[in-house]
Design goal:
- By secondary structure, the protein is an alpha/beta fold.
- The protein has 2 domains: 3-19 and 241-427, Enolpyruvate transferase domain (UDP-n-acetylglucosamine1-carboxyvinyl-transferase, Chain), CATH 3.65.10.10; 22-238, Enolpyruvate transferase domain (UDP-n-acetylglucosamine1-carboxyvinyl-transferase, Chain, Alpha-beta prism), CATH 3.65.10.
- It is built from 14 helices and 24 strands.
- The chain has helices at residues 22-30, 48-60, 95-98, 108-115, 134-142, 174-185, 200-211, 243-256, 271-279, 318-325, 345-350, 381-393, 404-409, 413-419; strands at 3-7, 13-17, 38-44, 63-66, 79-84, 92-93, 117-121, 146-150, 153-157, 166-168, 190-194, 215-217, 224-227, 235-238, 259-263, 283-286, 290-294, 305-306, 331-335, 355-359, 362-366, 375-376, 397-400, 423-427.
- Helix 1 (22-30) runs parallel beside helix 7 and helix 5 packs parallel to helix 6.
- It is globular and about 65 Å long.
- 51% of the residues are buried.
- It binds ligand EPZ.
- Ligand EPZ binds at residues 23, 26, 102-103, 126, 131-136, 171, 173-176, 315-316, 338-339, 381-382, 409.
Length: 431
Amino acid sequence: MDRIRIVGGNPLNGVIPISGAKNAALPLMIASLLTDRTVTLENLPRLADVSLLVRILSNHGVDYSIDGRRQGEEQDAGQTVHMTAREIVDTVAPYELVSRMRASFWVVAPLLARCGEARVSLPGGCAIGTRPVDLLLMALERLGASIEIDAGYVVAKAHKGLRGAEVTFPKVTVGGTHVALMAAALAQGTTVLHNAAREPEVLDLADLLVKMGARIRGAGQSVIEIDGVARLNGAKHRVLPDRIEAGTYAMAAAMTGGDVMLQGAKAEHLKAALDALEQSGATVDASEEGLRIRRNGSPIRPVDISTAPFPGFPTDLQAQFMALMTRAKGVSRITETIFENRFMHVQELARFGAQIRLEGDSAIVEGRPVLKGAPVMATDLRASVSLVIAALAAEGESMVQRVYHLDRGFEALERKLSRCGADVTRISSGD
Ligand code: EPZ
């Protein structure tokens, strides 16, 4: 298994191009199952999760082709992928594939909407607490599907087609909103989603669906209305920039006392995180080019945060912000309200000398002036990258194990960091 060696202490200085968002790319790719025409996605990140989803979708009958690199194109430019599900050849999504990536469970919606049935394994994915799918299934049932659980599989049927309905989510769910949007797009009649997720990735999916001919009003707000159509067309769409990748490098720049331009990042996608960064003493400048983040010599101030659905502070940046707070001058409280077990990075951050105490759904972080490099590993994607951030600011050498978590969600991590002056090397398992 690959490892990443980091010698900390260098401030990050330079330009980091932000890739297409993983969490937008995945539902956009899945939406290609809704039509027999070609869906072209530009700016798709080169990530293990994207490659795995391509495999999963091709099992259902999606043909795909990837454009080669063009003259003068940057090494980090996103890929353009053409996906065509002319015919759905299999409505079963097997355990072996779905257990490796939770988001692949969302294929249940387009398979059901287009073929009237789907048999999809209950999901796996990152170890961040119990992550049920009851609300996704509730939405499909409201739209007229019959749902049974059989030997670890969800069996969903709607042989007479789905019907528009009122769906009220008792809790904001990104996946639930994606699933309901895709299913309702091909249902008969009007669907109204109440308490829908407002994440930019939901808006991106709705934008693609509208280009495909769907009739959607209110995406990006908590009430979304969808008038179902009989069929959807092909479309071309550019994946939005990854706000979590941008937020991660913003924390790294603030932590190392650097100055970086996050090219392509959008301030409106990151307001809560940028506010917290500014309160911690970093300077944030938004421009056409992207976001410039710097902290020159000023101490890191402690800031309390609590995660919340968009536009609140994202749970996917909680671990990275905690890493920053381990070097703050004072005590901060970090509260996780979305997932009940998303503190696995705490014991690993402690290896650097961080002082963190857990109190229910909060972590109390007592900042320290110095962290010391250490061997560390983490069990999920965002936790892993919080260790990278801490290692960049720690004295001496750190070795981050289980790099495959990082490869799921951070494109060209070592290259982007090295170009900004970090001492980062990947050590392949063969070395
Ligand atoms: C998406 O997961 C993201 N994944 C997650 O990012 C992100 O942390 C999460 O949204 C919250 O922002 C992708 O987009 C691929 P949810 P999702 O449904 O859709 C509960 C990463 O690192 N819930 O919004 O699975 C659930 O347990 C990943 O990139 C139910 O109770 O999250 C949680 O407490 C990790 N029943 C809350 O809702 C359900 O049926 C929000 O989850 C569904 C969810």
